[in-house]
Amino acid sequence: MTLLVPSDLYNCWFSVPVSTPHIEVDYETMNALMQKLPQGYAIPDPVSMVIMNEKD
To answer: For an engineered disulfide with 3, which of 27, 29, 37, 39 has Cβ 3.0 to 4.6 Å away?
Structure first.
């Protein structure tokens, strides 16, 4: 049986999270992936965000 949960539960993976409560994801798959990612993982990573937000 597949348990679907709101994708917002995984917003911690994104440097700039966007709420999408209407999108549901497979709980078991997402949690298995979450366990394999390094602690503090974010897309894009915080260092890249600083570089992208720098003014020339």
So the answer is: 27
